[in-house]
Amino acid sequence: MDAIDYEILTCxxxxxxxxxxxxxxxxxxxxxxxIERIKKLENSGLIKQYTAIIDQSILGRDLNAFxxxxxxxxxxYENFVDSIKKNAYITECYYLAGDFDFILKIVxxxxxxxxxxxxxxKSIDGVSFTRTSVVLSENKNxxxxxxxxxx
Length: 151
Known about the structure:
By secondary structure, this protein is α+β, with helices and mostly antiparallel strands. It is built from five helices and four strands; from the N terminus they run αααβαββαβ. α2 (20-27) packs across α3 (31-43).
């Protein structure tokens, strides 16, 4: 990856629907060269997917929380992960090292929904302890991080 690829990624990060002609005009490259470079970035796996970022607050889902979860035993790992994947309001799930086994991000519309999600999590076989933190404000949310820029 070179500086031109970095500039293309910067444009796509800001707007993944930006067309190759516009990107080329911004970085002084032909449309066909931009298309070729984007295809190489996709084929290499660096560009994993394109997606729309939906403003959940417009949908009334302005209550975010993080729930850390401890399992009784690692044998419950697969069942826990399978159960988490079935709940659309659990938007992120990470397996951790440390005092807790998982951290989950919840996006929902009201306290009652959060209570129902928490009860769902607590009912999963093997869950021994949870801790919930409600988000008061979001100060940074980077969807992706660009690679280091090569000079």
